[in-house]
Amino acid sequence: MTADFLLELRSEEIPARMQAGARADLERLFVRALADAGLPAPAITVWSTPRRLALIARDLPLATEAVREELKGPRTSAPPQALDGFLRKTGLTADQLVDRDGVWFAVVEKPGRATAAVLAEAIPAIIRAFPWPKSQRWGADSLSSEAMRWVRPLSGIIALLGGEVVPCAIGGIASGRETMGHRFHHSGVITIDGVDDYAPKLRAAHVIADQAEREAIVRTRAQAVAAEAGLVLVEDEGLVIENAGLTEWPVPLLGRFDEEFLAVPPEVIQLTARVNQKYFIATNPPRTGEGDHAQHGGGASPQAPTLANAFICTANIEAHDGGQAIIAGNRKVLAARLSDARFFWDQDQKTPLAEQAKKLGRITFHEKLGSLADKVARVADLAEWLAKEGIVPGADPAQARLAAELCKADLVTEMVGEFPELQGLMGGYYARAEGLPHAVADAIRDHYKPVGQGDAVPDAPVSVAVALADKLDTLRGFFAIDEKPTGSKDPFALRRAALGVIRIITENRLRLAVAEGDLLTFFADRLKVQQREAGVRHDLIDAVLALGGENDLVRLLARVHALQAFVGTEDGRNLLAGYKRAANILKKETWAPLPQTHEPEAAEAALAEALAAAGPGVDAAIAEEDFTAAMAALASLRAPIDHFFDAVTVNDADANKRANRLALLDLFRAAVHKVSDFSRIEG
Amino acid sequence: MADAAPMPPSFQDMILRLHAYWSAQGCLILQPYDMRVGAGTFHTATTLRSLGPEPWNAAYVQPSRRPTDGRYGENPNRLQHYYQYQVIMKPSPARFQELYLGSLFAIGIDPLLHDIRFVEDDWESPTLGAWGLGWEVWCDGMEVSQFTYFQQMGGFDCKPVAGELTYGLERLAMYIQGVDNVYDLRFNDAGTTYGEVFLENERQMSKWNFEVADTDTLFEGFRRAEAECQRAIAAHVPIAAYEQAIEASHLFNLLQARGVISVQERASYMGRVRDCARGSCEAYMARYHDEWAAKFPGWSA
């Protein structure tokens, strides 16, 4: 016998961003509660709306299995304390035990429990244990410290197993079969018979219980209203989910805003619409020929579609005027926000960035590292130097200095004060509006890049110089004042900055000594993490770093890549084995150099000859940074070293022979070390 | 408003309707606190009364001063002096949301014509050592109220929790009257506008806040209020201490508007205001603690 189970936890509005997590948590806690009672995991569906979490479990057995458990106790001959202990543990009396061949056994019969009883206990426990990111107390019960908590006040519980109420209660709320429909489209309670009429009855009361269905409505209707207006929706899955989490009956509506606002950069409009109002935006359909709205080039590629003067909001009602009042109201709110944005845009352009930059002296970068103006001055020196020295090839030193001097100026503009996420981007716009060279404007715009793993790395020379200088200055500064990241703490985002430096240097193949000391070690650690994802072995990076003094990341990686290729070959593996054997011997033995008093054996002579031949080859290849050739030169030592170990006894009784052979192995080790410290290589 | 709806209420009628509505829900209708404050929450009817176990239901209008928001009367929706309508109900009633929606209906908002939404917005006042969970209430995408279940006040858990509503009256009135400039609001139904009542006030007070106010006097006032707050705490008159805390808070806001507090000093001044406010709340709790514990079994601070 099985039955279906319905649970609905109705509350005041659950934040949209928490709903997906809540669905997963409810399912997990429910399955665990069943498992604890010995019930198998059923097929489960979990739904959320702003005002309810619902769970449907199909085909639950009506009772748990009866369990018969036998516990082995002490021997019947054991002292009485042992028996007492066993009785305490089992909660039985001596006459309930069974004597089997001189050993006491307790036989415990656990009868099956009604699933309804299991659920009646589990539901309040799940509610009490629910891991909301933030929860609250409410109402009269909150007089006590032990009052229950929920994300917002909990107002009702439906718990029906096979259509029967599973009776339970928590915080003064008793389970039942009644729920509420849409806040405005339905009044009075809805009585639910069971799993099958839950969603249909809610739908009749203007509530779509399944978030996936609401998301689909938001997605397709938003596209449709845009298409009906001859526009193309700018798709935004985050907004789809958020709007579906804010509505029980989503109705996307399209409104227009004044075309004059299109003078403001499209990123600003999109951000205003999205972040503040949760609106979608739309673009004009692709067109050939001239006549489009004037747009700012900015970050958009020349083919990027132009923004349309439209927004799509998602209402929660089927308004009786078709949504005209809602659109009008939303248009007004958006207009107020866009007027603010346009005011900022106009206002900011009245002050040249060079003037704005002077205000950076008032902003503390870090108490021990001075103001932002101080930082900018350092970055400007460094960027100019990177260009002048040719470290960033093709970068004009004057442009690099200018861009660096202006790169933080937008932080004191009104627009960035309002939308901090537009830092850099606005500086780029304002620089272009001032008539500064595109290379300078681009460098200002892109100097924070790369921001995340997926973010593009600048490749225009001036942009590279400024982006690199900004991050290097930050890293050097914080390391100089001993503010290094520890464990999970990285308040100044230095790991991200180091990764940015690594990507800028390696992707643009820049040649410079990136750092020394602790900071170089820090770069090495970040490099290992970054390269691991590219399939590069961290022990090989260690092997190259162990040579010491390698602070040129491009050369370092070239060595590592050549090494990784080499140790993958048979020559490489064998040379490594020979190296390890030599190194082990050298580790154990001490010797002083002694003159050559005997004729070397053939294998000995061959190794010496091969070393003499390979040495200059390795050196020359390394000097030319042709590490593949250096590896190839090393590979020529493989046969001689193998042969040497096969044919020659190192620990010869003759002290001269022994010392000469150890010295030869030492030469071999030194030759290998020209390429990397093979002792760091695993395997 | 569309349809054949009756003319929306004037600014003063809107307030009268809210008073009538919340009075009918059992709230005391109080008058504004007679001191300069930044928000309705600062009224003792909210801060101090949300402490402790005694039931408390009140509604009032509170003039709110935000010196840095002054725009010399030239911005259509920013004011350095505006009105908040504040409702506080302790313990928070079970149907608090429905009661709130009833108040919107009472001032002429039809929820099947306008899209009303509860959008997550948690509230925190470090100055008051207070926080709560709740929403900003949207009407057609515009925030018309703040809806909060207080969890802590003055660093103390709210036992029981109080529900707080804050309506921005000018913004709400602009919305229901369909007006784009605050100064064009109908203050009454006899032809007086909001601008006639307040425009000159905004011009003069913006000038005073930003340009005229003597900063030495303000600094001195801040120090005195802070010292007086500590004296009042020591003398076990926490309400008087709290008044000095709000005085210090407003003087700090004025100093900010005058632009004489640096970024570095800012945190330190805020900390001093917070210490005054928290100290007052602690003194208030200490004074009534035993009485409350005796009257409300199961309650503890």
Task: Tell me the overall shape of chain A.
Answer: flat
Number of helices of chain A: 24
Q: Could you describe the largest sheet of chain B, including whether it forms a barrel? A: 9 strands, mixed
Beta-strand share of residues of chain B: 15-25%
CATH class of the largest domain in chain A: Mainly Alpha
Query: How many angstroms separate the termini of chain B?
Result: 48 Å
Q: Helix- and strand-based class of chain B?
A: alpha+beta
What kind of sheet is the major sheet of chain A? 7 strands, mixed
Give the termini separation of chain A.
59 Å
Q: Ranges of chain A with pLDDT <50 over ≥5 residues?
A: 290-301
Structural class, judged by helices and strands of chain A? alpha+beta
Mean pLDDT of chain A: 91
Order of helices and strands of chain B: HEEEHEEEEEEHHHHH
Largest interface: A-B, 50 and 48 residues
Report on this model:
The complex is a heterodimer of chains A (683) and B (301). Chain A contains 24 helices and 18 strands. Chain A has 683 residues and is of the alpha+beta class. Chain A has five domains: 2-64 and 114-204; 68-110, no CATH class; 213-289 and 302-348, no CATH class; 353-535, Hypothetical protein af1432 (Orthogonal Bundle); 562-680, Isoleucyl-tRNA Synthetase, Domain 1 (Orthogonal Bundle). In chain B, 42% of the residues lie in helices and 20% in strands. Chain B has seven helices and nine strands.
Keywords, separated by commas or semicolons:
heterodimer; A: 683 residues; alpha+beta; 5 domains; 7-stranded mixed sheet; 4-stranded antiparallel sheet; 24 helices; 48% helix; 14% strand; flat; B: 301 residues; 9-stranded mixed sheet; globular
